[in-house]
Amino acid sequence: MIPVLGIGGTFQIGFQVSTITYTSQHVKVFINETWLKRYGYPIHQDNLLFLWSITVSIFGIGGLLGSSGSRYLTVKYGKKKCLLCNNLLMIVAASIMGCSKIAQSFEMILIGRFMCGLSAGLCVPLHYQYVGEISPMKLRGFANSTSSLFWSLGKAVGQISGQRELLGSQSLWPMLMASCGLPALVQLVTLPFFPESPPYLLMHKGDQEGCRKAIRQLWGEGHHQAEIDDIMKEKATMKNTKILSVLELMKEPAFRWQLYMIAILSATIQLCGINAIYFYTFEVLQAAGFDEKMISYMSLSVGLSELMATVVCSSIIERLGRKVLLRGGYWIMGSLLAGITVTISLQDWYFWMPYCSLCLIILFVVVFGVGPAGATVSIRTEILRLSCRPPAFVISSVLNWLGVFVIGITFPFIVERLKHFCFLIFMGVLFTSGIIIHLFLPETKGKSIVEITEEFNKLNFKKKRITTTPNHATEDYTFCTRL
Asked: Model pTM?
C-alpha cells in the first residue's frame, strides 16, 4: 500500500517542482506570444518575470488552502475517501493545463497550477498520516521515510520526462504539464482495493471488526491484539479530553516545544535552499557558467542523486536516529552552500571551477536526501499523539506551503539582486536550525510516545516539578483537536 499512497502523495509535489523547471523557457515564450497576439506589442520583461513568479508560486497558495482544510475533511470523510476525491481534482487540473496552448490562454496555466497546489496541499498531510497509521512500530521510521523517497522519485521522473527528447520540447510542453494527471489516475484506480486506516476505523467509526480486518490485510495473518489494544487505549483517553482549536493548541503549554520543533523543521525545509535549487535549477547552472544545452542533463543528475540518497536514508534512519541525521545534515548543507558561493564567485578565474559548483550542488542534494528529507517526516509524526497529529500537520503544512509561495515569488528577484550570494541566506538558516536541534530536540529512535512526551515535558514544564508516568502522560497531556 505504501507505493499506492506515495504515487498520489509526495510524488506529486516532487513531480510539480521539477517539471516547472523544464517548462520555464517554453511557458515564458508562450506568455510573450499570447501577449503579443492580444495587445500587439511584446510584454515588458519585468511583467514577464512577475507572471512567471506567480505561475511558480501560485502552486504554494493552492497548497496552503488545501492543507488548511485537510483536518476537517479527514475527520469527516476519512483518509481514503478524501484521497479518491482529491485525485479527481488533480486530473481536472491536468486537463486544464494541457489545453492551455490550444486555447491560447496562459491564465489556464495559472488556474491549473492553483488547482494542482490545492490537490497536493490536501493529499500530502493525508499521505503522512495514512502511511504512519498503517505501519507497525518496528517499521515506523522506514515507512515515514518513504514519503521523502517518493518526493525524490517524483522529482526524478519529472526531470526525465522534461528532457527535450521526451516531453520537454517546444511542441510537447503542455503534455508535460498535464502528465501530473497520470499518477492521480493510478491511485484513483488502485486505492479502492486497500482498507481505510485501522486507527480511523476503530477510533472514529467504532468498527473493531473492520479494524481487525484492515490490520490483517495490511500486516498479514498473525496475532495483532497488542496493536489493537493500544488503539483502544488511545480511544479511551479521547473520551475525556478537551477538544481544542488550532489556536488553542498553539497556546497549550503541554505541546509548546513540540510545536516549536515542528515549526522549525517546516521552516528549515523551505529555507534550506533545496526548493530554490529545484525551482530555478536552470538559472543556478547558468550562473555557474554551463552551456544551456547541457543544463537539462545536469539537472537530471541532481534529481537522480537525491533519489539514491533517500533510498540510503530509508535504510539508515533506524540505525543512526533522527536527531543525528537532522543536525549533521543541516551543518554539512550549510558548509556546502558556502562552498557553492565561493566556486561560483571564482568561475571566471579557472575553467574547471563550474564543475566544482556542479559537484557541490549534487553533494548538497545528496546530503539533504540522506539526512533532513526523511528524518523531518519521522520527527513530525512521532513527537505528537495520534489524536493531535491532524491539527499539527495542518500547522506544519501551512508553514510548508507558505514557504513554497514565498520562495517561489521572491527567489528570482533575490537572484537578480544578490546573484550567487543569495545562498548565504540559506546557509545562515541551516546553521541556526542545526544548533537548535542539537540543544532542544530529543532523540525519538526506539522510544514510545510516552517516553517522547516525558522528554518534551522537561522543556514544557522546566519551571515546575512534575513527576511523569505513562498513565499521567496519557491522561493529562493527550488532546484531540479540530481546525
From this structure: 0.73
